[in-house]
Amino acid sequence: MTRKTLSDITISVLDLAAISEGQTAADSFRNSLDLALLAEKLGYERYWFAEHHNMINVASSATAVLIGYIAGNTNTIRVGSGGIMLPNHAPLIVAEQFGTLESLYPGRIDLGLGRAPGTDQATALAIRGENFHSHHHFPADVEKLQQFFSSDNSDAKVRANPGEGLNIPIWILGSSTDSAYLAASKGLPYAFASHFAPAQFLTAIDLYRKNFRPSENLKEPYVLACVNAIVADTDEEAEYLSTSLLQFIAGVVSGRRSLLQPPVTNMDEVWSVYEEQAVKQMLGYAFIGGPSKLKTELQDFVMKTGVDEIMMASHIFDHQAKLHSFKLFSEVFKQG
């Protein structure tokens, strides 16, 4: 593995279009565009939305629509899904949607694919209807998508139009070793959800690299790690801002969902001991602090993992503080 410095690492953005207390989904979308414009200016490579459903604090359910909104109001940054939850959709529909996006914004669209439902079982039933109990073949559905995008599909009875013949990069997303084997076998780039599932991260990327088979899409393995990061001018300010993230994750753990909450001075008044332990376990790869602290921690992370790209997720209540966090994060990498 080639030794890398921070200046060698590509940086990107993951957005859930989180809704803060006192705001609406419309406010969240405007904030997303604001952040995307800043990210483009700062040199971030891509801006992805994650598909989630039935979460009052997450507005990224209509993922393809948001991708079009951001791509249509930016110029150079790549925009895509991190990811589209494939069991929720027929591959043909995904091919047509992303074929449309690629036709509108050529050379700027990414299609990240996940195998999870992105929601609870009751909502998954509402999404899938009669298909809920059918067995889903994620690898086969990925192959169907690749076929729909292929020029070789021109003689098939079912074709994706638009979509056919377009070069839309497909990424495999994952939080376990299963996804690592799939990405490796297909020679596709691999994006790992280490921002909420750190336990198998190192094992998964090692398996991916060892089992990688070069393809026409990718000659060498490519690893993207998604991490939580909250950066402020001082370590103390970042820790304070991070309590909004801690409350957000605690809501996931406990099932008590609420809009993104303002920071607090004492988390012990908010969570139980069990919730604290569960949240800290999920946030094994969270980078919280001032620029100096983050530089040291991120350099260690890059040396340990050898990742090619780091995607930043950041749940900060105050929008201006969030913009500042992404600015400081980019400066850490530029300074190397």
TrEMBL record:
What is one term from the GO cellular component aspect held by the record? cytosol
User: Mind telling me which InterPro entries this protein's record contains?
Assistant: Bact_Lucif_Oxidored, CmoO-like, Luciferase-like_dom, Luciferase-like_sf
Which Pfam family would be a valid example here? Answer: Bac_luciferase
> Can you name this protein?
Luciferase-like monooxygenase
Task: Describe the family membership recorded for this protein in Swiss-Prot or TrEMBL.
Answer: To bacterial alkanal monooxygenase alpha and beta chains.
Q: Output the Gene3D superfamilies linked to this UniProt entry.
A: Luciferase-like domain
Give GO terms: molecular function aspect only.
oxidoreductase activity, acting on paired donors, with incorporation or reduction of molecular oxygen
Domain of life of the source: Bacteria
Please give the organism.
Pararcticibacter amylolyticus
